[in-house]
Amino acid sequence: xxxxxxxxxxxxxxxxxxxxxxxxxxxxxxxxxxxxxxxxxxxxxxxxxxxxxxxxxxxxxxxxxxxxxxxxxxxxxxxxxxxxxxxxxxxxxxxxxxxxxxxxxxxxxxxxxxxxxxxxxxxxxxxxxxxxxxxxxxxxxxxxxxxxxxxxxxxxxxxxxxxxxxxxxxxxxxxxxxxxxxxxxxxxxxxxxxxxxxxxxxxxxxxxxxxxxxxxxxxxxxxxxxxxxxxxxxxxxxxxxxxxxxxxxxxxxxxxxxxxxxxxxxxxxxxxxxxxxxxxxxxxxxxxxxxxxxxxxxxxxxxxxxxxxxxxxxxxxxxxxxxxxxxxxxxxxxxxxxxxxxxxxxxxxxxxxxxxxxxxxxxxxxxxxxxxxxxxxxxxxxxxxxxxxxxxxxxxxxxxxxxxxxxxxxxxxxxxxxxxxxxxxxxxxxxxxxxxxxxxxxxxxxxxxxxxxxxxxxxxxxxxxxxxxxxxxxxxxxxxxxxxxxxxxxxxxxxxxxxxxxxxxxxxxxxxxxxxx
Length: 517
Fold this sequence. Notes:
It is built from 19 helices and no strands. The protein has 517 residues and is mainly alpha-helical. The chain has one domain (140-511): Alpha/alpha barrel (Glycosyltransferase), CATH 1.50.10. Mean pLDDT is 78; it is low at 1-29, 51-82 and 84-152.
């Protein structure tokens, strides 16, 4: 510091005297060191210019990025390691990701029109980011089950609002999704990372929500809620719900046993496992996080080991009997694992197709639940209260499309016609004998199926689905953002199930890419 201060004093003295009568060597002897350096470099540069025919190269600019110490960016590898070491999170820590809820009403989007591809291309928008990129297009390799994975199939989740509007959604559907995610985030058990099916009310702040579900459903409920966040592009690495997603993934990892099964093996545990495995596979596919790969692969391996040889799945491992409902969730998990480039043997898809073929009527195209010709499943205490639904036919469409069926196949058309005759309707007593037509589970699979079929099938279904779901979301109290569990499966799944599955239906515009262009 002293030398710098002396140099500044000498410079000031020279400036007052002018330095015009002093010899060069005296000027240099009293000049600051930096001035001498500049003088020498200037002379050298002039000499080089005189000796060279080419102009000197432009000076190189080095960019420096200043980062505050307490906000330093953590490399991805360190982030992953930090999460792995963070086994016990502070239960008292308040979440910082939930935006303040606004009281403005949801805007209707039922009259909005679709934008076609030509219109979007004319606007110069990125067509590869759209959710209707086919699996056989340049962003993917091939259809699920027939070869390599389709690595671009999750890309639409990050494509922004254009994916929503282009496929028939709008501000009303997105607002409903945002409200649903806020409700789910607020009712997660932060100390364990789960959504407690029968005790989520412990998280209520304003009043106590109704709609408890069954205790055994916790792993599946957590997987279902997690899928809702993943469907909107939120992962443990990005989005405003990173902490919510991270806690849920850690919970699922913690309850996975050595053989790969998520959760205890009681009741109908393959439902829990299949849905949890689907969410883990999607989380890995979206992030390629090494923290998730082993859990996802082990989950898929357990699914493979639980399959009835040559056919489908049921409530437990290799029980000998099959059902289309459990098999549907499993097929979704295998599909997402294939997209994520995990190891998925082709036998799983072959057996799934064999099962669907065995329970599908060749004349009327209806797919049965446990046998050809049945009208689906209902909870024992709900029989006679809810109308039959085409849930299994919807599962068949979705599964066959993902496994490589062509759009023009008569079976897909016939099953699309069945669903078109049974559109989503919020009617509590409009079915045969005054039965209710409300079935969120059917609406979810029907939405997946009809979105893939596209065309008039999708337009008709989409308008009915939006009307039924969006307009009946709760806007009051602690229930704000959720749906009352008054459908055919609400007594078992409760409010967490109802909200998760309806949010998933409303995310269809960007959750999966379309197989058919």
